[in-house]
Amino acid sequence: MITPDQEFDFDFDILDPTKIWPEDQIPVKRVGKMTLNRNVDNVFAETEQVAFHTGHVVPGIDFTNDPLLQGRLFSYTDTQISRLGGPNFNQIPINRPVSGVHNNQRDAMHQMSIHQGQTSYHKNGLNNNEPHTTPKEEGGYEHYQEKVEGHKVRQRNESFKDYYSQAKLYKNSLTEAEQQYMADGFSFEIGKCKSVMVKQNAVNQLNKVDRQLAEYVAQNVGVDVPENNEEVQSDASDSQLTLEKFDIPLLGHSVAVLINGDIDAKTLKDYAEVFSNNRLNFAFVGQHAKDLTEEVGITETYSTASSTIFDSVVILSDGNELLEEAIDFAELSYKHKKPVVVSEVASKLLNHSKIQLDAPGVIVSDKPDAIVDAFERFRYWNR
Question: Considering the domain boundaries, does residue 181 fall inside one?
Answer without folding.
Answer: yes
